[in-house]
Structures are given as C-alpha cells and as structure tokens.
Amino acid sequence: MKTDHLYYPYHSQRTTTIARQGMVATSQPLAAQAGLDMLKKGGNAVDAAIAAAAMLTVVEPTSNGIGGDAFALVWIKDKLYGLNASGPAPASISIEKVKQQGHEEMPLHGFIPVTVPGAPGGWAALSKRFGKLSLVDVLQPAIYYAENGFAVTPTVAKLWERACKKFRAACTDTMYNAWFDTFAPNGDYPGIGDVWKSPDHAETLRQIARTDAKEFYSGELAAKLAEFSADNGGFLTADDLAAYEPEWVEPISVNYRGYDVWEIPPNGQGLVALSALNILKGFTFHEKESIDTYHKQMEAMKLAFADGHAYLTEEKHMPVTVEELLSDTYAAQRRAQIGELASEPEAGEPKQGGTVYLAAADHEGNMVSFIQSNYHGFGSGLVVPGTGIALQNRGHNFSLDPAHPNSLQGGKKTFHTIIPGFLTKDKQAIGPFGVMGGFMQPQGHAQVVMNMLDFNLNPQTALDAPRWQWIQGKTFHVEADFPKHIAEALLRKGHHIEVKADRSAFGRGQIIWRDPETGTLYGGTEARADGSIASY
Predict the structure, then answer these.
(1) How many helices and strands in the chain, by DSSP H and E?
(2) CA-CA distance, 436 to 416, in Å (whole number)?
(3) Which pLDDT tens digit goes with each residue over 220-236?
(4) Which positions carry the signal peptide feature in this UniProt record (predicted)?
(5) Spans of all domains in the chain
(6) For the whole model, what pTM was predicted?
(7) Which residues contact 18 (CB under 8 A, 6 or more apart)?
C-alpha cells in the first residue's frame, strides 16, 4: 500500500500516525498510553495489549469490563495465533427453564443472559504464553487509575449518561443496586471531565494480577460471583467458573486482492466479514464513490449476514462447515444472486453432497489485534457487590428455538459479535485492524479492508470514510456525510436508506499497518470515539 492516500472528497479528522519502535491504538488515550508504557519497560506487543485492555475496563466501562469476553489474533515470530476467550452459558441453564420464567426470547438484563466471563482468563493466557512482563506489572496502570480516578472523556460520558437513563427505567430490582452504587454514585452519572474511581475494581485487578486470574475462577472472587448469582436466581455457579479455560484456535482467512484477511473462527462472527469479501473479490471496483460499488457491497453483506444468522454458533454445533461457507464455489453462487436491484436477504445452502478494540505493535515485529466487550454497553446491569465486576449479557444472543443452530444450551458458547481482524501478505504480517460495535463489526471490517486494498486509502482515511450499516431486510443506515447523490441512487435501486446523525452507531476502529520492507508502522484511530495512538 502507498503511504499517501489517493484524493478523497471527505476530510480526515486526523493524520496517519507514523512510528518505528512501537504503537498502540485504542479508543481512549490513557489506555493507549498504558500500552506504550509497557513497550518502554521492555515488554512486547502482547504486554502492551493486555495493559491497554485492562485499562479500558476502567476508563471505558461503558463498553467493556472485567466480567466480559475477549478475542485476540497474535502475530509472534512469523506465525499468527488465535485466542477465543469467550465463556459458555452456565451448565444448568436451558430453554425450558428460561421459558418457565416467562420469557419467549433471551432477556437483555439480569442473570439469565450472563455467561462465564472470559476476559480475565484471556489476559492470563496471553501473558503466560507470549508476554515478557508479569501480569502484576502489566495491570498496574489500570489499578492506579481505578483506585485514584480518571477524568471522563467526551464519548464515554455520552454513553455513560445514555446507559444510566436506560438502567433507571429497566433495572429496578434490588439486584441492580451495586451497579448504581458503582457507576452512578450519589445517584448521578459522571459528566465530561468529572473524576470517577472504583477502589473495588482496583482490588479485583490486584487479585487477578497476583494470581494470574486464578482468583477470578476458583478463589474469593469466584465465590462472591457465585453467591451473588445464587442469591438472585442466577444459573452461574462456582463450578461453571472453575471449569473455564480460554481456547487457542486456528484463525480462518480468505485471500482478497493478494492479501490474506484473518478472523477468529466461530463462535465469532468474523466469518460474516470473510464471506462478504469472498463474494466481493469476484468483482472489479474502479472507484469508491460509485453507486455500483456501494450496491454490490451492501448486497454481499446482506447475503453474508443471512448465512451468519442461519448457521453461526459454536463451531461444533454448526450444521455446515467453515470451509463450505468460505469455498470459492459457494461464493460464486452467492455472487451470482446479486442483481441490479436490492434483494431480500435469504440464507443459502453451502453444504455440497460491544465493545472495545485495540491494536498493538512492537519493534520486534510482534503485533496484536484484541477486542473485549460486555456486549450491550455496561452489560447485564449487574455488578458483583464489593468487586466492581460488571457482568456481561452475552447470552442475549442465544435463540430459544430448539431447532436453531444457536439455540440455548448449558455449557454452549453463543454466536459472538466481537471480532479482531488481521492482514498478512506473502506470509508476512501487515497488521491488526478492527471495528467494534455489535453487528456493525463485520460490516466495518469489510469496509475498511476495501478502503485500503481496493481504494488505496491509508489507515486513518480508511477509518474516517463515511460508513453504512445493514439493519434488516433492505434497510441500511448511512452517516450524515455519506454522499447524498449516491444515497438517492441507492433508493432508486430499492434500498431503504436512512441517514443517521449519531456516528457512534457506526462502529469504532483502530488500524496498524506495518511496511514489511522497512518495518515502519502506520496507524489510524477512531474519530467516532475518544481515539488515540501512542507511539515512539
């Protein structure tokens, strides 16, 4: 990729950051700085990523926390590794038990959607296998700010206010009191520049650091979590926590324009991004700002999502294989279904007879693509009293239809929205990329990949470009600076186009691109958040 982007009719919010020794890109400045501190202490990209991830549980609790899940793609010594640190549903839960409580679909709040938190185990697994520094050292910045406080940044303040207002209306049971005590002390949420601290959060991080997360899964923290669950009719038990181990997995990929695009295999939805790119690689795109380009992108994404919603879940429960979904034969079949007008998305038959995202790189060439999330903002609305642990509501994605591949079962991992991405070329690392934001994530992945590989935009401009998002049926949301004449032309093609002023709904991304010849790092961060890159 050229280091200077082609002419683009939209002004980038920032310039691409360029450095040689190391780089950390996150959605919050203190998190990026925490990662850089680890690099300067002699740590590697893995240490930097863990430090930034732990810090984000403190300074961006609106999107992730200690009680959430994580995924990582790690390039170490010329090899790409995948880590799935998502947790399963409690062993004792079932569709029947949930329906007996009066639910026809998985609720968003309370203990029913709470799954085993995987993030602390993920930090420990990464540190043990690839880190240079101790977890005590790596988590120290997060511990400091949790104990002493940090000044809330603008995007986080907006999301905090929004969540607090929703929880006041939806979370009225006494089991939610600890959330309000923790995140809305004295009955109010923090605003821009207000200082927020959580000594309980700091102590929990200390215990995780001292014990390499064992305390979280089989010690005092686990006991507190299990007791809180039992006292409030939850299904999560001490046995569920003790049985948990993060899983090292083989990343999956497709080749697009000579680059290999890598994602975590299911239960993550990275396969949706790869499916869309696999369809799109059969077309030639001459310019970005083209009606034909957007139409084909949108149609391919709908087809990929239709398959994702029909088949994606924990891989061993899928009725079709990843290889079948990503085969060139199936991609050609799906590509042939794209016509001149918008279509209703339907799953095909491939079988042949959150969130916070961060990227880190060091001077040795090691690179990490990392993502963690509580799913919906703060998650379930539950905080384990005395710990600062906000519990995720990832189980909300399960289906209560027993015939669906992603049906709820005890001990099963659900369809997961959070996905890290990575690029390689000719078996050399190019770098990590990601766009967080629920079901926007694979759509953001496909868009920024195409921006860089088809249209030669640098990382920062690739992120700044206006985005679109498929919602359902023929409905797409587009950002306010999306080209008006193209939006009108897409309407004439049958797409239902709605302009949305809230940019936060279109995902928040980070990119680090490494020049394989010089080792120079080019970074882009997100203007839709309090994005920041720390480098040297």
Answers:
(1) 19, 21
(2) 12
(3) 999 999 999 999 999 99
(4) none
(5) 47-60+79-248+376-397
(6) 0.94
(7) 3, 520, 521, 522, 523
Q: Is 287 helix (H, G, I), strand (E, B) or coil?
A: coil
Q: What is the DSSP letter of 370?
A: E
Sequence-separated (6 or more) residues with CB below 8 Å from residue 305 = 272, 345, 439, 442, 470
Token pair listed for 534: 């720390």
Q: Which two tokens stand for residue 366?
A: 């090691």
Residue indicated by tokens 């997995």: 249
Quote the radius of gyration of the chain (alpha carbons, Å): 22
Query: Distance between CA 63 and CA 373 in Å, rounded?
Result: 6
User: What is the pLDDT, as a whole number, of residue 291?
Assistant: 97
The verdict on whether 355 is a catalytic residue reads yes
At 10 the pLDDT is 47
CA-to-CA separations, 300 to 275, 367, 390, 434, 507, in angstroms, rounded: 8, 30, 37, 19, 19
Two tokens, residue 225: 């979590």
Q: What is the pLDDT of residue 349?
A: 60
Task: Classify 164 as helix, strand or coil.
Answer: helix
- pLDDT confidence of residue 186: 87
Counting every residue, how long is the chain?
Answer: 536
Q: Quick one: 74 exposed, middle or buried, by C-beta within 10 A (0-12, 13-18, 19+)?
A: buried
**Cβ pair 268, 416 in contact under 8 A:** yes
- Strands 475-479 and 496-500 come out as parallel
d(CA 36, CA 23): 7
Q: Residue 170's pLDDT is what?
A: 94
Q: Look up residue 396 and give its DSSP letter.
A: G
- In angstroms, the CA 492 to CA 499 distance is 16
Cβ-contact 355, 392 below 8 angstroms: no
In this prediction, the residues of the chain whose per-residue pLDDT falls under 50 are: 1-11, 351-353
Output the pLDDT for position 350.
Answer: 57
pLDDT, position 189 = 94
